[in-house]
Amino acid sequence: MPTWSLRRRPGRTLGLLLLLTVSFLVLRSWLLQDPDMKLRTTYHGFTKAVDLYFDHLMSRVVPLQYKYGGPIIAVQVENEYGSYNKDRAYMPYIKKALEDRGIIEMLLTSDNKDGLQKGVVDGVLATINLQSQQELKELNSVLISIQGIQPKMVMEYWTGWFDSWGGPHNILDSSEVLQTVSAITKAGSSINLYMFHGGTNFGFINGAMHFNDYKADVTSYDYDAILTEAGDYTAKYTKLRQLFGTISGIPPPPPPELILKMIYEPMRPSFYLSLWDAILFMDDPFTSEIPVNMENLPVNNGNGQAFGYVLYETTIFSSGVLSGLVRDRGQVFLNKVSIGFLDYKTTKITIPLTQGYTILRILVENRGRVNYGNNIDTQRKGLIGNLYLNNNPLKNFKIYSLDMTKKFFQRFIADKWSMIPKEPTFPAFFLGALSVGIYPSDTFLKLEGWVKGVVFVNDKNLGRYWNIGPQETLYLPGVWLDKGLNKVIIFEETMAGSVVQSTDTPYLGRNQYVN
């Protein structure tokens, strides 16, 4: 990921250098097909995948290094590994893997206060991640004790923070940001602003955190960053622009003009397809005696399913207590009637009296994999292990892969949709058209009256919405839109609103508009 480094030079001027901190290790869901997988260690199954990946990737990266005339002046070995620290041989292995494949520029590590002392590697420059001036003082002291007098860099200065569903919208005051950035530069450190622009977790790519409780990130990665999710200026931008201009002694150039935001006419869905009808038009389900987690489903050329939902079906003949390990959230149905949810906190649900043959269905959503902390090895999604009724394991499942990709929706041709009934059956897909003028522009969709689901625009997955907040609008870039009518599909789990509104103002938290 290219980031900007502000490096102090003699005479109190600032030089602007391009620093490429390469996040080489992108963890793929298929790694979890191995039941013994130990991610971010020297476990053979992991290093085999890393070596193969590096063999392909480094042949492209090596020629781009500074010594060969390219822009890469440094390479980050790993990210905050000291906070994980499951295998002391792992970081030296990654360092050697990079060097053996031709990486010759300066190597870096990057750690926060929880992992700095455990994250250092011989021959690699340690850098720090922080948000406060107190952390700056503490971590700089640790750095000196670890590596003596070396160039200093704050690899991640956290200009805000990400949000989780059901939590508050996180805000960091612009005056505090200014004071901390000023302190960092006065301490002689280079600085990388994380984030300068956060952007959006489009589709299903949001992550999650899991310490005491599992918390999935919202679709917006606005982060209360220097620029908003849509690229607009903030008070932080204005103040930092003035600070850097003062330090450099060079007036900054005029900033680019902002992109126009548009309010379109409300979109009223016209057509409908219940999930129970939709599965009739899908490929034959996978059958298994026991539940199979998402990553191990026999789809995508053996790579399993990475994101989305999985629907499990089996038959039951009695009432009782249903229990099982559901990751991350499972809506339970008897035939087509929802009776509740299973998740991390609710692991049991009562099945009411049934009359003979009944189809038990569980629609499981992968809400996002944990990307920090000690739980990364346990990020398999779907039903994990057996599902029990009165402590007896259920058998003979039909399993539908609902990855909701473009290919997934291509099977729902025009004659499969019907007019929206007075009382729709949920979950369901709703189809409408957003009318756009001659110049498509950015906008924000507001789903007031809708509860929880996913929005798709012109076959692209815009992201999730959920009325528990804090996020209440979805950023829709103008480049996603075409002149005229634009297809919008909404997958709603429990209750639909009548319209989807368009606004020119993002609403990311209760009583908190971004400006």
Automatic annotation (TrEMBL):
Record flagged with keyword Hydrolase: yes
An MF annotation (GO) of this entry: beta-galactosidase activity
Catalytic residues (positions): 80, 156
Start and end residues of each Beta-galactosidase 1-like first all-beta domain: 304-403
PROSITE patterns given in the database record: GLYCOSYL_HYDROL_F35
InterPro entries reported for this sequence: B-gal_1-like, BetaGal1-like_ABD1, BetaGal_gal-bd, Galactose-bd-like_sf, GH, Gly_Hdrlase_35_cat, Glyco_hydro_35_CS, Glycoside_Hdrlase_35
Residue span(s) of domain Glycoside hydrolase 35 catalytic: 29-245
Keyword Hydrolase: yes
GO biological process, one term: carbohydrate metabolic process
Beta-galactosidase galactose-binding domain boundaries: 427-486
Keyword annotations of the record: Glycosidase, Hydrolase
Top-level taxon of origin: Eukaryota
Chain segments annotated as transmembrane: none
Pfam families (UniProt xref): BetaGal_ABD_1, BetaGal_gal-bd, Glyco_hydro_35
Family designation: Belongs to the glycosyl hydrolase 35 family.
Stated name of the protein: Galactosidase, beta 1-like 2
Organism: Peromyscus maniculatus bairdii
Native organism taxonomy: Eukaryota, Metazoa, Chordata, Craniata, Vertebrata
Gene: Glb1l2
